[in-house]
Write a structure and sequence with these properties.
The complex is a heterodimer. By secondary structure, chain A is an alpha/beta fold. Chain A folds into five domains: about 170 residues, P-loop containing nucleotide triphosphate hydrolases (Rossmann fold); about 100 residues, Helix Hairpins, CATH 1.10.287.1770; about 170 residues, no CATH class; about 160 residues, no CATH class; about 55 residues. Chain A has 33 helices and ten strands. In chain A, the strands form two sheets. Chain A has a seven-stranded mixed β-sheet, with helices on both faces. In chain A, a hairpin with a 2-residue loop joins β3 and β4. In chain A, α21 runs antiparallel to α23, α22 crosses α23 and α25 runs antiparallel to α26. The C terminus of chain B is likely disordered. Chain B is built from three helices and six strands, in the order ββαβββαβα. The longest helix of chain B is centred in the N-terminal third of the chain and has 9 residues. Chain B is an alpha+beta fold. Chain B has a six-stranded antiparallel β-sheet. In chain B, β3 and β4 form a beta hairpin. Chain B has a single domain, classed as Roll (SH3 type barrels), CATH 2.30.30. Classes of the chains: A alpha/beta, B alpha+beta. Chains A and B meet through α3, α12, α13, α18 and β10 of A and α1, β3 and β5 of B.
């Protein structure tokens, strides 16, 4: 609306099957001009972008990938609602060229929504390479839809795609009349019958395509029915009529009408393809089959999966080490600069200790997280993720889960928030919620800093193995909890395992980077927002209320030390004696200052909170500071480390690191192990809780998730600590 | 694509096929939701299905249909009724030395259910 007067806006929805290369085309069309839009009503992140061409502005919405529009899954509902409610000017359907037949099924449904369509026949290079003969013009005529060959990964065909969009938006053009898929005269007679009744039912025909409504009612589509229900008061008559028709057709075809209609759609497609496509007799196996002979091999399949996971973690931690050191140095420099340049006082304290210290200690882990996300993007975009689900389904199924649950669970290693969102790919609600509840047990990247700190300090020789062990332990707990929940709270039917194994494709650097960047952005945003606020609140809680004056007993000691020093100075005879006395004095004064600081901290809000909590965490071997740090992890798990920084900086000497401070405070390797396990298992962070609440549609699942996890964490850590002490390890 | 002369008249579950075998879908005998999903994915009567491979733990099974690959659990494939196509359809597969010799027709779990 605010655009320049001579630019016209064209609203485009980008639809397509999963793995059709839709996102690559979206990236090519919109480049860097994209944002994640928030979808009203649903918690789906739908990306939107802008593209300019020939003086027009194209507003492109990347719809979720779907195989059909039958509203069985959330994605399908979103795609369908977009067409119905947002009224795009054009839908571009991205079609996987070498897999035309099944991809065109979605087209048949889009046609019925009576929206102008342009088909992007993607991966045209592969079509050529496979020697598939396609008569594009013929197919385009048969569907009455312009078809533009594209090669998304090389950015080819984009301008022609937008030209075709412009062409279909012109009025009175050849494309304006949609092709009609005939369902045979029995069904067609009934469609006509229903159409007549619908046109009498007030506004209904103005709101929705009338043929689509009739078909939907005949198919018994509940979603169409609810739309009808909301749009007209005369719905009951229509429903009765539709039910009679369904009965009649079911008797006639000896199958449900929706089956028959689906068959007719595929019939239409094979009819059209018979006239326009010739696939050569395949000689030997395709490349994908050859790769799968190895990757999903009976013997090698699982070891390869585990190897890849192991590789991912080695890369994350090994490679991440180097940039980590640079960032660490940068943060330190910034802190020093700030303390030099800013005047002493509460403001400096806030900036140096609260903001730079808090956010900095989290920023250090950005390289690790980027590498992890890069790896996950690679696994997803090549098509390996589906194989991982294929290979693991047997185990997942035995545990009451679904092979597809494997993917959100793996993503849980990155961040629980997108992982909880990824449960959307599961079709049954039961599977979705069950997976959501155990996703937080997969150790997210935010917990990594805790492990790196503790494993690095207390198990320096074995840090990698200990961390790997923690991850494995999380997986084990997830499997046990999954099994328990699915045999108690979620007793019931298992959902089917119908999953495409897409062709392997080398993703482009661009799409991998964009994919990774979006993931990293989420992490960065969290850092900028939640963690910044968390750090400031924590700093405040740790700094106030201040002590009015020095505690009396400590002042007394101070006086005594000073008197002794003066006395010693007078009595000293040699320069060496003077040195010894001075050194001793400095040491004692420092000790005194630390004691004062500790007293001060005890006075603060955090200290008081910690004291209250102490008896709860004491049986786990944690002191009150560890308890407070864990408490701050509710905000975000990254905060645990930064709050330890704030809490222990008090005791640490100027040059000492948090590591030394921890060692000095009496933490043993056994306690460190317990702390890592507790961090692994206890409550999800606020962001994850919110995601669980929204995705499950009920706060009760969120509460369950908080309480069961915290309870589990306490019990397991208790067993580890007390058991370890009994065995004499601690 | 296929010769109807090769078609056996007997209707058997898809899960009873061994790796490498080919069949034509006759009918889907599953409850409505899944049936619709399978049909949308291309499991419509008259379509050719190839059994590509079983997962390492024998379940699920990978099929080729309408030019693409899809996996189903045996439990689900049991309710898809097919007519087996005779004749040789086995593709040459990459096998590891010792395994290759023993693999021939030894899909040990494919006969179950």
């Amino acid at each position: 609306m605010a655009g320049k007067p001579n630019t016209r806006r064209i609203k485009i929805g980008l639809a397509g099957n999963p793995n059709s290369g839709k996102t690559t085309i979206f990236n090519e069309l919109t480049g860097a001009h994209q944002k994640v839009g928030n979808w009203p009503g649903v918690t789906v992140e739908v990306k939107q972008g802008i593209s300019h061409h020939k003086g027009y502005e194209f507003e492109i919405t990347d719809l979720p990938g779907t195989y059909s529009l039958s509203t069985q899954s959330k994605e399908e509902r979103i795609a369908r609602d977009f067409v119905l409610d947002h009224r795009p000017d054009v839908i571009i359907q991205v079609v996987e060229g070498p897999n035309l037949e099944r991809n065109l099924y979605l087209t048949t449904q889009l046609i019925e929504l009576e929206v102008p369509i342009v088909i992007a026949l993607n991966m045209y290079d592969e079509v050529r390479a496979k020697k598939i003969k396609l008569r594009l013009k013929k197919l385009s005529e048969l569907l009455n839809i312009p078809i533009v060959p594209t090669i998304g990964r090389r950015g080819k065909g984009m301008r022609r795609l937008l030209n075709a969009v412009l062409e279909v938006t012109k009025d009175g053009d050849q494309w304006s009349r949609p092709v009609r898929i005939s369902y045979g005269h029995e069904v067609e007679d009934h469609i006509a019958e229903l159409e007549e009744s619908i046109s009498l039912a007030g506004d209904l025909k103005k709101k929705y395509p009338i043929r689509w409504l009739s078909l939907g009612l005949i198919e018994g589509d509940e979603y169409v029915a609810s739309r009808v229900h909301n749009a007209t008061a005369l719905h009951d008559g229509l429903f009765v009529q539709a039910l009679d028709i369904r009965k009649h057709l079911a008797e006639l075809f000896k199958t449900d009408p929706e089956d028959y209609i689906t068959d007719r759609r595929y019939g239409f497609i094979s009819g059209a393809l018979k006239e326009s496509m010739k696939v050569p007799e395949s000689r030997g196996s395709s490349l994908t089959e050859k790769i799968d002979d190895i990757l999903t091999n009976r013997i090698l399949g699982l070891p390869i999966l585990f190897f890849l996971m192991w590789l991912l973690f080695q890369a994350t931690f090994g490679l991440g080490q180097y940039p980590m050191a640079w960032i660490e140095a940068g943060v330190e420099f910034l802190g020093d600069a700030a303390s030099t340049w800013l005047p002493a006082g509460a403001a400096r304290d806030l900036i140096v200790n609260g903001i730079i210290g808090g956010v900095g200690s989290v920023m250090v882990f950005l390289p690790n997280i980027l590498i992890l996300f890069l790896g996950i993007s690679l696994l997803e975009d090549t098509g390996y993720m589906a194989r991982a689900a294929f290979v693991t389904d047997r185990v997942m199924h035995a545990l009451g889960l679904h092979g597809k649950s494997f993917i959100p669970l793996i993503m849980g290693f990155g961040c629980s928030v997108p992982a909880v969102m990824a449960t959307r790919m599961l079709e049954s609600k039961r599977d979705r919620i069950l997976t959501m509840l155990i996703v937080p047990l997969m150790s997210c990247s935010a917990r990594l800093p805790i492990y790196i700190l503790f494993a690095g300090t207390f198990f320096p020789e074995q840090a990698g193995n200990v961390i790997f062990g923690i991850y494995i332990f999380g997986i084990l707990m997830a499997l046990i909890v999954g099994r328990l929940l699915s045999s108690t709270l979620f007793k019931g039917d298992y959902s089917p395992f119908v999953m495409e194994l897409p062709s392997y494709r080398l993703p482009t650097l661009k799409s991998i980077l964009i994919h990774m960047w979006f993931r990293a952005q989420m992490y960065l945003r969290k850092m900028g927002g939640v963690i910044l606020v968390g750090s400031i609140i924590l700093w405040f809680l740790g700094a106030y209320p201040k002590l009015d004056e020095k505690p009396e007993d400590l002042s007394e000691i101070e006086n005594r030390v000073q008197n002794e020093y003066r006395l010693g100075m007078r009595q000293a005879q040699t320069a060496e004696d003077l040195n010894i006395i001075t050194r001793e004095y400095d040491l004692r004064m420092q000790q005194l200052e630390r004691q004062t600081n500790a007293r001060e901290l005890e006075q603060t809000f955090i200290g008081r909170l910690g004291k209250v909590l102490a008896p709860v965490v004491q049986p786990l071997g944690f002191d009150w500071k560890m308890g407070v740090a864990l408490l701050s992890g509710f905000v975000a798990k990254e905060v645990v480390v930064s709050s330890m920084g704030v809490l222990y900086a008090v005791e640490a000497e100027e040059e000492a690191l948090l590591q030394n401070a921890l060692k000095k405070s009496g933490v043993t390797p056994l306690i460190a192990l317990g702390f890592m396990v507790f961090s692994l298992l206890y409550t999800p962070c606020i962001a994850s809780m919110t995601a669980i609440c929204k995705e499950s549609g009920s706060y009760r699942w969120m509460l369950l998730s908080i309480f069961y996890q915290t309870g589990l964490a306490w019990i397991v850590t208790f067993v580890i600590y007390q058991g370890g002490r009994l065995l004499g390890v601690g | 694509m296929h010769d109807t002369k090769d078609l056996t008249s007997e209707v058997i579950p898809l899960s009873a096929l061994a790796t490498g075998e080919r069949a034509i879908i006759a009918r889907i005998a599953i409850g409505s939701r899944l049936r619709l999903r399978l049909r949308e994915m291309g499991f419509v009567p008259g379509t050719v299905v190839d059994v590509v491979r079983s997962a390492p733990l024998a379940d699920p099974v990978e099929y080729k249909i309408k030019g693409y690959y899809i996996s189903l659990r045996r439990q689900e494939a049991k309710d898809i009724l097919v007519r087996k196509l005779n004749g040789k359809h086995k593709r040459r597969r990459f096998r590891f030395g010792w395994k290759a010799k023993h693999q021939k027709n030894q899909d040990w779990l494919s006969g179950e259910s």
